[in-house]
Amino acid sequence: MMPLGHIVSGLGVVQLGHRAFPRLSRVDWRVVTFAPLVPDLIDKPLAVLFSSLAFNPIHSRLVAHTLLSSLLLLAVGFFFRRDWLPYQLAFSTHLVTDRMWETPATLYWPIYGWSTLFTRRFLHIREGVGHSQEQDMIEHLLILLIELGALAVLTWLVQRHQLWRWRNLKHFLKTGHLISVRQTSSLRLFY
Predict the structure, then answer these.
(1) Residue 159 neighbours by CB under 8 Å, 6+ apart
(2) Packing angle, helices 85-97 and 3-20, rounded to 10
(3) What is the pLDDT of residues 115-162, one digit of tens each?
(4) Most buried among 43, 60, 67, 115, using CB within 10 Å?
(5) CA end-to-end distance (rounded Å), the chain
(6) Measured between alpha carbons, how far is residue 124 from residues 99, 106, 121, 160, 177 in Å?
(7) Could you report the per-residue pLDDT of 6-56, keeping only the tens digit for each?
(8) DSSP letters along 46-58, please?
(9) Distance (Å, whole) CA 128 – CA 125
């Protein structure tokens, strides 16, 4: 999955959680937008580092793409910082959108062994299953369609909250909250 798909999936899950649990109404949407990208921001530099140290290219889904990392973050949020829960949910959507169940050695690390993360594997090859060119083309087309859908959702959010207006954009960048513009005469905050 590419960045837009990750961002929209995180926004969607947190929005659903927000509606189910209104107590979580003070969500900073800037952090929600950033949280689904964190696993790649952690693992890609690590992959470059380990590849250069070992002189052996490795895949770029490492520690932050494991169920262990998501469960640890959720546990910290649940027991210590419940107000962080929406951001940890957004972080965890990354595992779903990257379809990590297709690479169980990474998802369930360290159950399959400590070294499974640092072995040479390619990103788009499913373990034990060969890929044909047609399957690769269909997968790339699906990713493109998802990214276009995500772009449409983000465009709709910009339009709905009129983020092209400096006042609304400035409010969002300062507070992390969106102004819901349902009627032009009355503005209310959308949390």
Answers:
(1) none
(2) 140
(3) 766 665 544 444 445 556 677 677 778 888 888 888 888 888 888 888
(4) 43
(5) 27
(6) 11, 13, 9, 36, 37
(7) 888 888 888 888 777 776 667 888 898 899 999 999 888 888 887 766 555
(8) HHHHHHHHHTS--
(9) 8
